Amino acid sequence: MADLLKFELVSPERLLMSDEVRQVTIPGTEGDFTVLAGHAPVLSTIRPGVVNVVDGGGADNRIFVRGGFAEVSPTGLTVLAEEAIPLADLDAEALAQQIRNAEEDVADASSDEARRRASESLDHLRQLQGVL
Question: What's the pLDDT band for 1 if we cut at 50, 70, 90?
Answer without folding.
Answer: very low
